[in-house]
Structure formats: structure tokens, C-alpha cells
From TrEMBL:
Protein name: Peptidase A24
Occurrences of domain Preflagellin peptidase C-terminal (ranges): 290-322
Organism, as annotated: Haloprofundus marisrubri
Source taxonomy: Archaea, Methanobacteriati, Methanobacteriota, Stenosarchaea group, Halobacteria
Molecular function GO terms recorded: aspartic-type endopeptidase activity
Membrane disposition: Multi-pass membrane protein
Keywords: Cell membrane, Membrane, Transmembrane, Transmembrane helix
Location, primary (coarse class): membrane
């Protein structure tokens, strides 16, 4: 593979984003320390490109325009979508990093073939990565629907969710797509479910074995740190395992199931210093009622945007801009 040294160094991002996509799928958590070195690399490579093209000329004006659009338009898109809740913090940082590292189209000669194949007129490569990623994200519901169709899992929400066994929820990420009353797109976040189980020092299997005992708020005596709900982040000073805990309490005597605070949901949320992913007492109770009585539920797995971002990056480095290529094929550009 041949290319300029800055363009070759830009390929260092590919294995990093591959690891980030894999980790985000597995844990929904990425370390903050990974972003500053990538941002620094982008700044260094930008300076290298500017130094290599000095003194300035007409082509350099186009380069500066491309850099300006990437840094002052594409990068803020990541922040804006994080601000309104459309992106996670890691997704926003990833897009900002890509805007710094790939402001213009790189060029690679592979076996006599120059990549990428399709370049846009303006030539802002980070914007190409973003549009490719959006197309991949849009295709994800089609993949879900096809999977459910093949496995004969028919449902009004088959393009947005998938059925899973309740016993497997302990190690899954996403949110419930159901309540006891039917489908909902505002179901209980599974990270919040793990936080609740850790707070009680119990497990999902124990809760399912005796839901009446856990529904009684008086059964909550000693509580434990909750962490952030990630699968591999059980607090060290709580008796927890991967699904939230390992302590099974004996069922207390009780005279009524008409509790003021079933499941101690309100008590749990009031004990937190921050919102458990938008969970309300009602949402938590509905989720607990569901998982304590069902063997299978529909869940919304959710796709971390860094995954389509990584795929969009690979496609951009090889094929180029998918949207521009399609529009060109039908004569619109």
C-alpha cells in the first residue's frame, strides 16, 4: 500500500475503532483516555499536511475550506447530537476525533488501484464517514426484521427489537420493549435493572424465584453500591456477580401485597445521586413485574453508533462515499 506518510499514519485509527466497536457492543462502555491521543494525532497530522503544502496557493485554499468544514461543522454535529440525547458521549467524541484526523480524502495505491474509488466534489472525508455510518444505522432495523422473519418471530416491533429469554437479560444491553400492558419504546433500561439488583444485593434468578418477597419494600434492609450498571462493573464491596448479585434472602412474612412502594422502586431511585438512565418508579416496577413473570420478552438491543461509524470508516477508505456514488449512478450529481 502506497500513500503519503500522514495518510498512512491515519490508518492507525482503524484498529482502534475496531476495538472500540467490539468493546462498545460487549460493555456499552469506552474509556475516556482513548480519545485525547487520537485527537492529538489528528492535530499533528493536520499540521504536517499544512507544512507539506506551504507556501499557500489556490489548492491550499480548498484544503483550508475542507478542514474548516470538518472541524467547525462535522465535529460540532457530534456534540449537538450528544447534547440532545441522540448520541452517547463516546459516539460524539469518536466523530470529533474523525473530524480532526480525516478532514480531507486520503489516497492509497493498492495493487495499482487508487482508493477510495468515489470522492465527493467538496472532498470532506469526515462527512463521508458520517453519511456512510448513517446509512449503515438505517439498514440495522432491516437486518433485525430479516432475522426475526427467518426465525418466525413475528411482531409489530420485529424491525426494532428481538425476543430473548429473560434469564439472558443479565448480560445483555438495551432496554425492554414491553411492559405488562403491551409494547413500549420507553421500557426499562437493562443497565438500570442491573443497578437495582446490585442495590438490593440479589440476583435476577432469585427475584424470579420469589417475586412476592422482593416486591415487599420491607424486605430491603441492607443495600449496596450500584456502579453504573455495566455487565463487568460490579462494585467490589457488594456481594454481586455478573447478573447483579449472589445473595438470596428468605421470604419475609407479609400480610398484604398492596404496598405503597412495590419493589422499593422509589426508595432505590431516591438513593441515587443521578438518574438511572431515565428510569422512573413506574417504569422500574413495570419492568420488574414483566421479568418476574415471563420466560421471554421483546427487547430493543440498540446499536452503539460507533459500530456503524467503524463500518462507515472502512467503506469510506475503500469504496468512498456511498450516498454520492448512488446519486451519481442515477444522474443526480
Amino acid at each position: 500500500m502506497l500513500g503519503t506518510m500522514p495518510d498512512l499514519l491515519r490508518l492507525l485509527v482503524v484498529p482502534v475503532f475496531l476495538w472500540a466497536a467490539w468493546r462498545d457492543v460487549k460493555t456499552r462502555r469506552l474509556p475516556n483516555r482513548m480519545w485525547p491521543p487520537l485527537a492529538a494525532l489528528g492535530i499533528v497530522l493536520l499540521g504536517w499536511d499544512l507544512w507539506a503544502t506551504y507556501p499557500f496557493g489556490p489548492l491550499d485554499s480548498l484544503f483550508l475550506l475542507q478542514v474548516g468544514i470538518s472541524v467547525f461543522f462535522v465535529a460540532p454535529i457530534g456534540y449537538a447530537f450528544w447534547y440532545i440525547g441522540g448520541f452517547g458521549a463516546a459516539d460524539a467524541k469518536a466523530l470529533i476525533v474523525l473530524a480532526l484526523i480525516f478532514p480531507t480524502f486520503p489516497s492509497y495505491l493498492v495493487s495499482g488501484v487508487e482508493l477510495p474509488f468515489v470522492e465527493t466534489t467538496l472532498g470532506v472525508f469526515s462527512f463521508t464517514i458520517l453519511t456512510n455510518a448513517v446509512l449503515v444505522a438505517v439498514a440495522y432495523p432491516l437486518v433485525l426484521g430479516l432475522r426475526n422473519l427467518v426465525t418466525r418471530q413475528f411482531s409489530p416491533v420485529m424491525f426494532l427489537g428481538r425476543p430473548v429469554s429473560v434469564d439472558s437479560l443479565s448480560t445483555r444491553h438495551g432496554s425492554l420493549f414491553e411492559t405488562p400492558d403491551g409494547y413500549t419504546r420507553n421500557g426499562l433500561d437493562l443497565d438500570a435493572l442491573r443497578m437495582y439488583l446490585r442495590w438490593r444485593g440479589t440476583t435476577l434468578s432469585a427475584l424470579r424465584a420469589d417475586p412476592d418477597a422482593h416486591r415487599d419494600p420491607e424486605s430491603v434492609t441492607e443495600t449496596y453500591p450500584v456502579g453504573d450498571g455495566s455487565v463487568d462493573d460490579a462494585p467490589s464491596d457488594s456481594p454481586t456477580v455478573a447478573d447483579g448479585g449472589a445473595v438470596v434472602r428468605e421470604r419475609p412474612e407479609q400480610n398484604s401485597t398492596d404496598y405503597e412502594d412495590p419493589w422499593a422502586a422509589e426508595k432505590f431511585l431516591n438513593s441515587l445521586e443521578w438518574s438511572a438512565y431515565g428510569t422512573t418508579p413506574e417504569k422500574l416496577r413495570n419492568g420488574l413485574d414483566l421479568v418476574s413473570t415471563r420466560e421471554e420478552v421483546w427487547m430493543m438491543p440498540g446499536l452503539p453508533f460507533i459500530v456503524p461509524m467503524f463500518v462507515g470508516l472502512l467503506v469510506a477508505l475503500t469504496y468512498g462515499d456511498v450516498l454520492f456514488g448512488v446519486l451519481g449512478a442515477v444522474g443526480l450529481v
